[in-house]
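Team,

Forwarding the record for the chain on the shared tracking sheet. I've put the sequence and predicted structure together so nobody has to dig through attachments.
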Amino acid sequence: MTDSDMHQQTDSDGGEAPDTAAPREPVAAPKASTSLDRELADTKDRLLRALADMENMRKRTEREVADSRVYGISAFARDILGVADNMHRAMQALDDDLRAKADEGTRALLEGVELTERELMNTLEKNGVKRIDPLGQKFDPNRHQAMYEIEDLSVPAGSVIQVMQAGYTIGDRVLRPALVAVAKGGAKGPAANDNPGGQ
């Protein structure tokens, strides 16, 4: 019997066989896998948060750009309203009798001023500035400023019965409230929000 035959016989007799099993994974591998999964989840969460922040910033920037388009001229428009008021007051100071007696040159001047006032108001409106003329409407403290009350039983209490100075809006904001006189003593009028579209 040769040595190799003896060796094979020893193996078949229950002796130790050579180790042919696949190498085993290190015991620490599941911990490393869990750690990587956790890190991947954290990175994914941070990425989703960053994307959400970017989307919010994009929407906020779009809103600010839209607001600046609509409201960017607010200070300028407010200053121009003083000019419009002065032109309107000048035209109101001339009564029909005075106009009828005016010579051709004066009449032409008055027509020119009226045309300029109309053009100014059209330009303001084209740029989003609209006039508030609340005569006969219910007083709205968000759009009107009450200067005084007048006893008048013929109209509902709280109605605007006189406008001293027109108000203006720009977009959906009040640029300048209308200066008004409010009736007191009459029947109670409807609530201000019953007339949402009134200006």
